[in-house]
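In line with agreed milestones, work has continued on tokenised descriptions of protein folds. One protein thus recorded appears below exactly as we store it:

>
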Amino acid sequence: MTHTLARRVGAVAAALAIGATGTPALAAAPAGIASAGSADFTKDGRHVVVPPHARCAVEGPTTASSPAVSASGIRFGASDSACTTTVVDPEHNTTTTKSEANGTGFELSALVSAGGPRLKVGKWKVTCDATDAGTTAGWSMGGLSGFAGLPEQIPNNHVHEVKNGNGTVLARVTFSEVVTPQPNDGSIALTLAHFRFTPESGVSGTVKLGETACAPTP
């Protein structure tokens, strides 16, 4: 049976920290990147790797598009991305950046043989916007299936357990996974859904759906 959930959205911001000298700390994160997702896992001795799907970067390539790709136990649909830089004050060389990826037709079937659900996300988007004052990351997704019990309002770093019919946890999925550096430099990284498999699933490795990161502009 298919259970489709309504479209969900989320956002998080990181302000730029000012050092003792009064100048911004150097950002360790990339200037701006985005991709529809990636996979690196092993099942039944077969290693499955899906490189970052439709990945863009502010430094280039600034746009990317990828057709659907299928491997054993996983599928990413057609996806695209764009990482752009806008000059807002030419006199002072002030810029902003926007990194965005859009994906469709994700399906993870690697857990079905262990009695788990077929997990689907119909469409999703991740964004990361940066100014000289800080960064903001956001996401949206819709057309979910197989994520029984997922709340309507998903907080940052929410962990959802994927179980089989006996209640055995086969995977833990962190939704809206946010990483900010310590000490704070204003940069941010966001993964819409990070799948981590348990030993009981017979699968090892991870899957990431919707990835973006950015740092404050110079």
Q: What stands out?
A: The CA atoms of residues 48 and 72 lie 7 Å apart. The longest strand covers residues 94-108. Confidence is low (pLDDT under 50) at residues 1-7, 16-27. The chain has no helices and 15 strands.
